[in-house]
Amino acid sequence: MRYNVTIEETLARTVQVEAGSQRDAELAVRRLYRDSEIILSCDDYVATRITADEGGPYYKSPSNDFTVIQGDCVETLSKFRFGFDMVFADPPYFLSGGGISYQSGKVVCVDKGEWDKPTTTENMDAFNYRWLSAVRDHMKEDATIWISGTHHNIFSVQQQLLKLGFKILNVVTWAKTNPPPNISCRYFTYSTEFIIWARKQQKVPHFFNYELMKELNGNKQMTDVWRLPAIGIWEKSCGKHPTQKPLAVLARLIQASTRQGAWILDPFSGSGTTGIAANLLGRRYLGLEIEEEYLAMSRARREEIENSDVRSAYLERLAKAGAILPPDPLFVSEDEELYYGVPWI
User: Fold this and answer.
1) What are the E-state strand segments in the chain?
2) Which residues pair with 318 in a beta bridge?
3) How far are the Cα atoms of 20, 94, 215, 225, 334 from residue 208, in angstroms, in the given order?
4) What mean pLDDT do residues 202-215 have?
5) Any idea what the Cα angle at residue 79 is, between residues 75 and 83, rounded to 5°?
6) Using an 8 Å Cβ cutoff, are 46 and 9 in contact?
7) Is the pLDDT of residue 132 over 90?
8) DSSP SS3 for 27
């Protein structure tokens, strides 16, 4: 976290330091004053005031292809102008109403947090309209957006997309090959999620990597039903977000709708899965997230794939799952020209 530390004195100086906590920030400034041989008299010094600077990145990768910022997506996006090639959003489903499920041989509560509590239809519509409107303003004219959900939220999302002028291209049904059982035995087992794919403009053509999708599907046209497993244990090496999506799903949709070097936005970044998939496939990423716990997880996951052996192992797993072709040397160029003028770097 970056902190602004203001030493309230007659000179009114403000310095900015990188620190893990407010206490560390204050100590860093004291060292700075000591090393610079700055001496404050009793008449000069008033107080020390520390505030967190949430405007800058929480973390960016060494090659600048992965950036996460802490903050509400609407407020953060309002601070800069930039056009993204693709957006993936996994917004709240509003289904954490005290239900239970079955995981790893145990009955567990499925509540994700206060942010996922059920709400009124009007509030849900207003929430979805607000964030979709903000995101649309930061999409290139030929950009597309993918939004995941279940019946709890996806119909609201669809209605707001239409209100904002998006053109819906497909509604993908993700059929999980390893869903948890329905322990109440009063309903069919829940084994699917929906992913809406839409483009920004009604009449501006979008990019679709048709040939690659066909090749990944045994040289047959890929349908809008994707049979892919839920998240694997190997994807939880740095912790687990309660709504974490599998890399295989993100890898497929990123390849379907972007070219190498594309900029991808995730307004509900969570544990950074979108960014990890993007970087593994040679794309660039900006994620927005409020919770510091998940920002830290995103950073740890990105730092993990700096290890070439880990990166290779991930690509091999994705290829084995049929999410990508057998890996060639995939990387993102570190040419600084690629990042010139990007406002959050």
Assistant:
1) 2-9, 13-18, 45-52, 59-60, 66-70, 84-89, 100-103, 106-109, 139-149, 167-176, 192-199, 225-228, 263-266, 284-289
2) none
3) 43, 31, 13, 17, 26
4) 97
5) 105
6) yes
7) yes
8) helix
Task: Give the range with max mean pLDDT: 167-181, 228-242, 267-281.
Answer: 267-281
Q: Is 287 left (phi over 0), alpha (psi -120 to 50) or beta?
A: beta
The answer to whether residues 49 and 9 touch, using CB atoms and an 8 Å cutoff, is no
Structure tokens at 122: 């009007």
Q: pTM of the prediction?
A: 0.78
DSSP type of residue 235: G
CB neighbour list of residue 115: distance below 8 Å, 6 or more residues apart: 92
Query: Which residue has tokens 């000069």?
Result: 44
| Total H helices, total E strands in the chain | 9, 14
Contacts of 248 (CB under 8 A, 6+ apart): 228, 229, 318, 321, 322, 323
Q: Are 315 and 327 contacting, i.e. CB atoms less than 8 angstroms apart?
A: yes
Burial of 72 (0-12, 13-18, 19+ CB in 10 A): middle
Q: Which amino acid is at 293?
A: E
DSSP state letter for 153:
T
Q: What is the pLDDT of residues 33-68, one digit of tens each?
A: 677 666 655 555 555 555 555 557 999 999 999 999
Q: Are 264 and 86 in contact (CB under 8 A)?
A: yes
DSSP one-letter string for 271-316: T-HHHHHHHHTT-EEEEEES-HHHHHHHHHHHHHTTSHHHHHHHHH
Q: Report the sign of the C-alpha dihedral through residues 78, 201, 193, 249, in that order.
A: negative
Cα separation values, 115 from 22, 176, 242, 274, 306, Å? 27, 25, 12, 20, 32
Q: Which amino acid, 267?
A: P
Residue 62 in tokens: 């060494």
Cβ proximity of 292 and 219 under 8 Å: no
